[in-house]
Design a protein that fits this description.
The chain has 168 residues and is mainly alpha-helical. The chain has 6 helices and 3 strands, in the order αββαααααβ. α2 packs across α5 and α2 packs across α6. It starts with 15 loop residues before the first helix and ends with a strand.
Length: 168
């Protein structure tokens, strides 16, 4: 059996909630689901995250509620700016993220090592990316790709007990 046959790609023009629905649908009885590595990481074509999730439909709905609130907040922040420089020079996004502006640049990158212990950092970095993409009027596909990663990260933070990288 090919354990990756049910995996999906966040670049498949999925909306974030569709992405989350597929995560839950493809979670097996032991709580294992394979999610493709996020698109800004090395070995994208040959690597997957193997997640051990402890969740159900009610948990998924809670993640959707949290995601919707965050996304509305991101839109409210982004509409105040017409350039990334102005966004980053302002205290609004760093204050929303709860980070010191002096450490702001540290949130430009998502670590290649994803685990349940660094999800707060990763979520803040992804929120920063989504907001910046909206400010620069990036394509909706690119924004949805990042937003799909955000909703996955929220689910991992709340409901994953283990994250590991596996290779085809």
């Amino acid at each position: 059996m090919n354990r990756f046959k049910e995996a999906f790609n966040v670049n498949d023009n999925l909306l974030p909630i569709e992405c989350l629905n597929l995560m839950l649908k493809n979670t097996n009885k032991r709580g294992v689901v394979y999610v493709p590595k996020w698109p800004y990481e090395r070995f994208l074509e040959t690597c997957f995250y193997k997640l051990v999730m402890h969740w159900d439909n009610e948990c998924k709905n809670k993640i959707i509620e949290e995601y919707n609130k965050i996304y509305i907040d991101i839109l409210d922040i982004a509409k105040q700016f017409d350039s990334i420089d102005k966004l980053y020079d302002s205290d609004i996004l760093s204050s929303y993220l709860g980070i010191n502006k002096n450490n702001y640049d540290k949130y430009d990158y998502v670590d290649e090592i994803i685990d349940v212990n660094n999800m707060d950092y990763i979520i803040k970095a992804i929120i920063k990316r989504v907001c910046a993409l909206i400010v620069i009027n990036a394509s909706i596909q690119l924004i949805n790709t990042e937003a799909s990663i955000l909703i996955q990260a929220l689910a991992i933070k709340k409901y994953a007990s283990k994250v590991s990288t596996v290779y085809r």
